[in-house]
Amino acid sequence: MSATTQDRGAASRTQGMERSRQSKQSLGEIIWTALAALCLILALVPLFLVLTYVTVRGIARLDWAAFTNLPPPPLADIEGGFRNALIGTLIMVGLGALISVPFGVMAAIYLSEFSQTGKIARWIRFATNVLSGVPSILMGVLVYGLVVLTTNTYSAVAGGLALAVLMLPIIVRTTDESLQIVPKSVRWASLGLGSSRYQMVLRVVLPAALPAIATGLTLAVARAAGETAPLIFTALFTQFSFNGFFSPTASLSVLVYNFATVPYENQVELAWAASLILVAIVLITSIVSRWVTQKSVY
Amino acid sequence: MNGTHSVNQGAERREAVLPPREAREKWLDRGFVLATRLFAIGVAAVLILIGVQTAIDGWPAIREFGLGFLYSSAWNPVTNNYGALPMIYGTLMSSAIALLFAFPLGVGTAIFLSENFLPLKFRTPLIFMVELLAAIPSIVYGLWGIYVLIPFLQPIGQWLHENFGGFILFSTRYIGPGMFPAGIILTIMILPIITAISRDSLASIAPSLRQASYGLGATRWTTIFRVLIPSAFSGIIGGTMLALGRALGETMAVTLLIGNSNNLNFSILAPANTIASLLANQFAEASGLQVAALMYAALVLFLLTFVVNVLAEMIIRTVKPY
Fold it and tell me: Per-residue pLDDT tens for A52-93?
């Protein structure tokens, strides 16, 4: 019954120059499609495994004490926490943003607004892209040479500076792109009303691009919060509370690094809990920024 | 005649209302433009500074060991004798393993997500999920790798050694941390880069090319292999180069999984080291000539990633003018 309808369908399809389902090409098509789908599945399996594993292992230890206590010594019977690491991460990421945002936004304003010939701008965009490909550990090496060796101490300032270098190319690129989306007519209108160039940029173009710039900044902050490599030999780590900008400072990511390979169960548990926080930061900012970029001002 | 007159009159009136800009404001304006220009140049300067700083701080080691540093396999802080061959081998080998797996997987994923195999409303979240893979912090991959990936790869590593043990790459037993798990974690981490850029370049192919191919009677996959992939080829290669740059310098996940052994061992089942993990492990406790040697190693890594990234940017730029 169904075979007859299929046959009739095949006959009419042949007239419409369709390939028959049994042809050699069709079989190949199906195999290739299945292979491509398999690639996607293989790519996404680790994502699910990482997310579920981190959630399950992390949530077990993510209680109030985790946020209020200091890291526990090995084998201690007290409930430790990562208060100092959380504060340290906030301080150093804040410091990094404080340095890199004005720097990066100013640079992006030049690239998108004032580079008339475009030649310098082309090179600087090129350098920005290359800088964003430089391994993050080299940001740490740079700051180690510039700051740690001269001040003779690991510090929150050094860590913040390393994160600033890491965030800089991300901020330049996203700001540059967001400024370019603002229509030319808005600039002409502003200049036509008699504003000078800095008034045009600061009062008209920048506010118009602000949501997109903020999105880029959020992504940069999320990226910096999870970075470990630039911090391990600039900010180092400490078991104790934050002790000023010029002493070693703990961070969540370095805590995970230090506690990942120890044989002490209480410290390993804390590493999983800290990982969960890092993953949550990234997840939330990614989703929110995606949601925000769907709305635009102009 | 009449028109000129009225225009002149208009100009006079405007001047009466709007005085010319004050000198102070003109300077402010010029100063602002100049400041933005300085900051822009500053971004490029940071890039150069990384190279210069590591070269200066590494100078004692560069003078002491010269180019022999690159092919000597001694790394001995006790006798102050340093060579980076095991780490250079580890860096290149772990990246090669990662590319070997990530290239086909990444391009396959990109094809699946850029063609209309699935309706757009399913594709969009899947694309987002692949992007998310790139956003997860490296250290989290490392922690996960220790507890999940290393035990998971145990039977595979054992099988490789038992069946292909004569081959130098599998000549040692799988003991856990080593090049193999590090290469696999790198695969997971660089795959989204290859996918994202390949997908971009596949999506930017003019629709007329695809239509022409279908019009000639080509099947979907003939179109993909003969028309779409060749058109997007430079984009795919550019994305792969970018991914290679990332793999060469990836630090935390690799450090936790590679075993950090400074002895040269060609087997991928044995513990090894990369330049980035060497820096991560030793910088905080280094002093004297060891710091210089580490700086020298950092310079090697910088130059390596610099060249790869510059090539990647040049290839991608020919595809998509940024």
Answer: 999 999 998 888 988 999 998 887 777 889 999 999 999 999
> Hey, what's the torsion of the CAs at B311, B314, B320, B322, to 10 degrees?
110
Whether the CB-CB separation of B40 and A169 falls below 8 Å is answered with no
For residue B294, give the CATH number of its domain: 1.10.3720.10
* Contact at CB, A198 and B33, closer than 8 angstroms: yes
Does some domain include residue A298? no
Structural domains in chain A (count): 2
Q: At which residue do the structure tokens 């002093």 appear?
A: B287
* CA A9/CA B135 separation, integer angstroms: 49
Q: Is the domain of A39 the same as that of A123?
A: no
Domain count, chain B: 2
Count the neighbouring beta carbons within 10 Å of the beta carbon of residue B310.
17
Residue of A nearest to B299 (CA): A138
Cβ neighbours of B126 in A, within 8 Å: 40, 44
Look-up of token digits 């935390």: B252
Select from B125, B98, B103 the least CA-distant residue to B113: B125
- With CB atoms and an 8 Å threshold, state whether A137 touches B126: no
The amino acid sitting at B246 is R
Distances A151 to A161, B69, B169, B176 between C-alpha atoms, Å:
14, 29, 45, 40
What is the Cα–Cα distance from B303 to B176, expressed in whole angstroms? Answer: 31
What residue type is assigned to position A23 of the chain?
S
Cβ–Cβ below 8 Å for A232 and B280: yes
Tens digit of each residue's pLDDT (9 = 90 or more) over B217-261: 888 899 999 999 999 998 999 999 999 999 999 999 999 999 999
What's the sign of the alpha-carbon dihedral B301, B144, A235, A101? positive
The answer to whether position B26 is within a domain reads: yes
Chain A neighbors of B244, CB-CB under 8 A: none
Domain hosting residue A76, numbered range:
68-293
